[in-house]
Design a protein that fits this description.
234 residues, Rossmann fold, five-stranded mixed barrel, 10 strands, 29% helix
């Protein structure tokens, strides 16, 4: 049995930019450095969360996820932040839960896609209703109509563009840690998208992170004796 099965282990929380942590950073009961990365310890009732701001991109996300696991955050990994909407209905302000994260810099190959933990996903959608779809992770933002349409046509249903989720998910899969992700749409991932991002980022950046206390409380309650706990990877 993996140590993530222990109800006493902390959860991990990862985001790319400080603003995407919302007000949770102000609630840190301890700050320390683990392998050079700042890790914040948060407490929500009896549950602990180790949070870290990784920086933009897949390399930073992979490194930070690994640091969080090394620090003991093996109960589950949560990825929060913002994203670009690739479908017409995904307007700025929409909360989108990840069903599957995919690396999309190259042709889709086996091993580049990772499914979110279904029970973590279900619990998060209960406390933070929103859309659900694929998170398409690349090395650069989607800022052209051609690229947006190419990605949108390749994936059925709702999908968004980001730069960290698939990498963090792959690290979680390798470590045997369940994971889930929630992001808020700031722009439409097309020409002029950077203007929309700048206009909306400040007000929307921390929205996903602010749902973490309710999520952790729900998962902690479910893990008490006599009730089913969150899902674990197979």
């Amino acid at each position: 049995m993996h140590q993530s099965d222990s109800a006493s282990a902390p959860f991990g929380l990862l985001c790319a930019l400080p603003a995407e942590l919302g007000t949770l950073g102000e609630r840190a009961v301890e700050r320390r450095r683990v392998l050079g990365q700042e890790v914040l310890e948060l407490e929500f009732g009896s549950a602990r969360v180790l949070a870290s701001v990784c920086g933009v991109g897949k390399v930073q996300a992979t490194r930070t996820a690994t640091v969080l696991f090394a620090a003991g955050a093996t109960r589950g990994l949560f990825v929060v932040g913002t994203c670009g909407g690739l479908k017409q209905a995904l307007v700025p302000g929409t909360l989108v839960h990840c069903t599957r994260a995919a690396q999309t810099d190259f042709v889709r190959l086996e091993g580049r896609e990772t499914d979110a933990d279904p029970e973590l996903l279900a619990a998060w959608r209960d406390v933070a209703p929103g859309a659900a779809g694929w998170f398409l992770t690349a090395d650069r933002p989607v800022l052209s109509l051609w690229r947006r349409l190419r990605l949108a046509r390749a994936f059925a249903g709702p999908c968004v563009a980001d730069m960290e989720t698939a990498a963090a998910a792959a690290a979680a899969r390798a470590a045997g840690v369940p994971w889930a992700a929630l992001r808020t749409v700031t722009d439409r991932s097309t020409e002029g998208g950077h203007f929309s991002f700048r206009a909306n980022f400040a007000s929307l950046a921390g929205r996903a992170a602010e749902t973490i206390p309710a999520l952790v409380e729900r998962l902690s309650s479910a893990a008490r004796p006599g009730l089913p706990g969150p899902g674990r990877p197979g």
